[in-house]
Amino acid sequence: MSHIDHALRIARAIASILGIRVALLGVGAKDSVVRTFEDRFEAKVDAIPMKSLEDMINNADEKLAAEFVNYIKGRVKFEVGDERLRDVGRIYAAMRGLYGKYDALAINCFPYLIKHRVTPCLALAKLNEEG
């Protein structure tokens, strides 16, 4: 790869995040890293506290959650309890509901996992698969 090609790839990567809208789920406040990101890339980052995330999940679209469950059940090769899978489906539906409002989502998984004993990983993986 030439230096010009490398420089073009870097320029395209930076251009793709200029003005980006990001939701940080399960995060109480923006820290200095987030504020620096906003300043350098003219980005808009919303910190969405855990309580708000939990409310979004509790009020998620049940039809979309059920579609997620059916999709996953048809593909996993390991045992997953139906109730836990429905919990992940609600997480998926809540996060999917943010589509169009944000260009990117990030979630503070570990505190959610500890508190609710379910991981958002499958939901996030499905969203990544969808682009």
Q: What are the main properties of this structure?
A:
single chain; 131 residues; L-fucose Isomerase, Chain A, domain 2; three-stranded parallel β-sheet; 7 helices; 60% helix; globular
Give a short summary of the structure.
The chain is mostly helical and 131 residues long. The protein is built from 7 helices and 3 strands. Helix 3 (50-58) packs across helix 5 (82-96), helix 4 crosses helix 5 (82-96) and helix 5 (82-96) crosses helix 7 (121-130).
Indicate how many domains the architecture comprises. Answer: 1
Radius of gyration: 17 Å
Provide the CATH topology.
L-fucose Isomerase, Chain A, domain 2
Counting H and I runs of at least 4 residues, what is the number of helices? Answer: 7
Question: In the CATH hierarchy, what is the architecture at level 2?
Answer: 3-Layer(aba) Sandwich
Overall mean pLDDT score? Answer: 90
Number of strands: 3
Question: Which strand-content bin applies to the residues?
Answer: 5-15%
Order of helices and strands: HEHEHHHEHH
In whole angstroms, how far apart are the ends? 27 Å
CATH superfamily: L-fucose Isomerase, Chain A, domain 2
Characterize the overall form: globular
Task: Detail the poorly predicted runs.
Answer: none
